[in-house]
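Meet our chain:
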Amino acid sequence: MKSTWRNWAGTVASTPQREARPASADELAAEVRRAAEDGLRVKTVGSGHSFTAIAATDGLLIRPDLLTGIRRIDRSEMTVTVESGTPLKRLNAALAREGLSLTNMGDIMEQTVAGATSTGTHGTGRDSASIAAQIKGLELVTADGSLLTCSEKENPHVFAAARIGLGALGVVTAITFAVEPVFLLTAREEPMPLDRVLADFDALHAENEHFEFYWFPHTGNCNTKRNNRSAGPAAPAGAVRGWIDDELLSNGVFQVACSVGRVFPAAVPAIARISSRALSARTYTDIPYKVFTSPRRVRFVEMEYAVPREAVLDVLRELRAMVERSPLRISFPVEVRTAPADDITLSTASGRETAYVAVHMYRGTPYRSYFTAVEHIMTAHAGRPHWGKIHTRDAAYLADVYPGFGEFTALRDRLDPDRMFQNPYLRRVLGD
């Protein structure tokens, strides 16, 4: 009996012809060969945290939940090789037990390592880039069912693209990440007026290893977060205070506030003013993944664009002006982060210092008018949409904002000439 797959946000559903749960790279390769014989397209799905249909298929859906765990740790090279279906939360906990850590990560750790890297998941960092930028080696099954390994020295042209491969080049079976000895981060979270954040943005970015902020539309209020390495000692957030901030206020009360705003949109500005003042300043010191990540239990839909870092202040002023003159009622904050330039072909930070602007709407709330207005602002600044978040861009637009776009599609032509890994989303963003 066929079953329907749905993503986390409930924005995408698909009914594959069949599903497979391979327990090894060899088993996965055999499934790909069998799909080719049966004329089925192939997609792999992780935890479903992408808001786009990047993983949807009516052919063979591969679920990698048996492809989990650490294959090896190389302390001389300071790398860890991990199976592609391993959730980031399990990898982070396992590395911590070994006294190791990734250098940077996003704020959600429910994704699988392959899902997170293939779509360009990132955190914020002055000098340290996305999770994919920490990859040192990849193993993937290509369309002919063969196992291909790549790194800076082995198949370097594939490596340059496959770190953020969108599932278009093959099925990733294992990833080798650079790691470092576990360290401490001190997080300083505090409210700050939006006008001050905009005036001091360049200094806040320059003075902190990791800076981000959340602006609450309909208000002039922000919450800021600065994470910097610390000599210690560790001083984790207190259990009670942490529960109040991370669970009660950021999830429980916020869920109720969003639900009220969905039913009574006119109340949203007042709710936003209350929400923006709910979290008070706090400082704590802990190991990286406990600082970088936080629980996200309120379901939402999201659009995020990467713009040149020098353009972000103009983007934010235009965004604020748009909200002020529109009838829109926005209950979710706007999130702003940064990343250094990297050399990954279709990375949103490829070749340029980048700022990320993410907008959200509570699940079940009409979002298209807001997202369309935001997208108009972002594209006027050569914005690059996050591959796993809602957008309407196509191959013609993306070829203009990615210098290496043609290199990626040429590589896809070589590795997947018959488009075994194609689906409607990839057809739109990469062309035929």
Observations:
- The two ends are 32 Å apart (CA to CA).
- The chain has a mean pLDDT of 93.
